[in-house]
Amino acid sequence: MVFNKKLTHRILSTVLLATFLLCFLPIFGGCAAGELSSLRSFSKPYVGQYACVSATLGGKDMLVKFREVYLELKQDGTFEITAVEKKGKVRRAEGNYVYDEENELLVFTAKLLGKKRTKKVFWEDGTFVIEQKVVGKNLVLKFSLGG
Predict the structure, then answer these.
(1) Domain count, the chain
(2) Which of 85, 94, 117, 139 is within CB 3.0–4.6 Å of 89 for a Cys-Cys bond?
(3) pLDDT at residue 40 above 60?
C-alpha cells in the first residue's frame, strides 16, 4: 500500500510540474509567442541570386544583347541588379527591398534619375516578374532563384 501512495504522489507531482511548465514557462522565459515572426520571415527563402530567364521590350527579346542578367537579394534588405552585355560591359543598379509576408510581395525601392521609385511584385516559389512601361512599350523581366 505504501508503494502505491508513493507512486501516486510521484505521478501527481510530475503532472503538476509539467502543467506549470507548459503554462508559465513562456512568461518566465522572456519569450512572447505573439511577437515571434513566422518561419518564412525567419528563414528568408527569397534571399539569393535570381537569374533573368526572360526579358522582353514590346514583345522583343532583350536577352540576346546580354551575356547574363541577374538580381541579388541580400540578407540586409538591399538588392543589386547586374547586366553583362555581350561585349563585356557591366551595368549595375542597387536599392532596397522588403518582403511583405502577408501578401507574398517583394517591394523594391531605388533612386532612378533623382527620384525614389517603388515597385511591388508577387513572389511565388522562387520566381517573380517585373513589368514596367518604358518609352511607351512594356518591359517584362522574369527572374528565377538560382536560374
Answers:
(1) 2
(2) 85
(3) no
| Cβ atoms of residues 73 and 79 within 8 Å | yes
Residues 66 and 12 grouped into a single domain: no
| Cα(21)–Cα(18) distance, integer angstroms | 5
Percent of the chain with pLDDT over 90: 57
Counting other chains too, the contacts that 78-83 makes at CB distance below 8 Å and 24 or more residues apart are 79/108
pLDDT tens digits along 41-79: 456 889 999 999 999 999 999 999 999 999 999 999 999
Q: Nearest CA to 63 among 3, 118, 143, 8?
A: 143
What's the domain range around 16?
A: 2-36
Same domain for 88 and 120? yes
Contact 92, 81 (CB under 8 A): yes
All 3 cell numbers of residue 28? 518566465
